[in-house]
Amino acid sequence: MSFAIEPQFINTPELAMEYFLVPWDSEAFGFPVAHVQHIALRDGNAEPAFQQFEQWCRENNCRLVSCRMPHDRLRESGFLERHFFRFIEMVYKPRFESLAELADRESALDIREAAAADLPEVEQIARSAFATGRFVLDPQFPAGLGNERYVTWVRNSFADAQHQVIKAIVDGRLAGFFIVEERQDGTAYWHLTAIAPDFQGRGLGQALWQAMMIRHRRAGMHRIETTISAHNTAVINLYAKLGFTFGGAEMTLHRTEALVDV
Prior knowledge:
Layout: E1 8-11, E2 15-21, H1 23-29, E3 33-41, H2 47-59, E4 64-70, H3 74-81, E5 86-92, E6 94-96, E7 110-113, H4 119-128, H5 134-137, H6 145-158, E8 164-170, E9 173-182, E10 187-195, H7 204-218, E11 223-226, E12 228-229, H8 233-241, E13 245-246, E14 250-256
Helix pairs in contact: 1-6, 4-6
């Protein structure tokens, strides 16, 4: 899923922006969703140029606009907050640089690529496993709406040739899944990771994450990258324990339009 979907640009002496509609989120929520990929304030009054973006939002009936930017872009975040954007979460970018140095060992876990028949079980986990994602945390979303976004994400990933959905089987049951992308530059990107609620708190996380790291090493990958919410302290501690380093934090902002009426 590339975010480069018909991008729109503003490039004036006062303001630079890139933004676009997000079709998979629009599908999940049932109304137009947009994302601001980049915003940079320059010298002078940015308001006139920003009105081009506002007009585009009105023309496309955008009921949700999200933006993610480096944590130190306080001038830009303040500008967006004056236009009714609200801070939702901070995210980190864990990275493991040295898969080639990772000891190769067999895992006791049964992990393999999921089949189409596994989709209902994977969807059920996606519907219930995430408590710290931005669409779950945002109080302006009706209960359950954010979870359906993860279900759509899973469904689209099964249909995307660039993504693999890897399942973990424990005691004959589907206990968790990873949505991964192995890129030509040797980077394995973890788009979504989850353990079923019934299996959480049983120490499965470390074994599964390690097994996935070894799987990528055997596939010739050199590094792993992912994105996690700062609210998910258990997973932050897990990545630290596994030797991941953490890149610059990014903040997420949302602007919503009467979502409670959906």
